[in-house]
Amino acid sequence: MSINECCLKGFKWDGEPVGRIEKLEGEDVYVTGDNKTSAIMLIPDLFGWSFPNVRLLADHYAREINATAYVPDFFAGEVLPFDLLAAEKWAEIDLAGFMARNSRDIREPQIFACAKALRERHGKLGAVGYCYGGWAVFRLGAREHQPPLVDCITVGHPSLLTSADIDGVGVPVQILAPEIDHVYTAALKTHTFQTLQLSGLPFDYQHFPGVVHACLVRGDENRDGERAAMARGKDAAVAWMKLFLRDE
Description:
248 residues, Rossmann fold, 8-stranded mixed β-sheet
């Protein structure tokens, strides 16, 4: 249930995002696509809503799923410095303060409010979360929401996730799990697999051998296996969302 340095390593990809900036429940949000009936809310990792990789992923989701994709700013405008992260200058980054300002308790009501607004606007809604966003989309998919806030969730290498989050989910779940992950631990992976296999919910667990936490969003395309993992992770999320957001 922790955040550590492996959550902060990463590389920028090539390409230019094609979306637009709007407001959602008073917060800045990156929007891409124009489907009026199906939407995806992508909750990013600690690099935040403005990180190019996240916006490029949203563009892929919007285009390939035929949905409107939203990437809200859930960090109140704060952005961790990429230059320090890339140089692994951990001592110069106030990660503890950042996490205190963006704790689960602080951000959960805002995340729920944005999902409710998108549910009302579009009807069908899927949620995708990587690292920090992992716990959040599990909470969006919780059984406590009646009617459900989202139709399905995809979670990539989650952080801050608890066994209670896994136990409480009530919508179809897809897990994208790199093999080497000190945050989404072997114990949590086992609990996820055992719990969701018995839940009666549609469940898809994708194992990514030989790659590390965060590679599905911030992998180094020059490192063995990471480019292929990024592509496979994107394709898996697209296929999963299509199952539950497609027109009847």
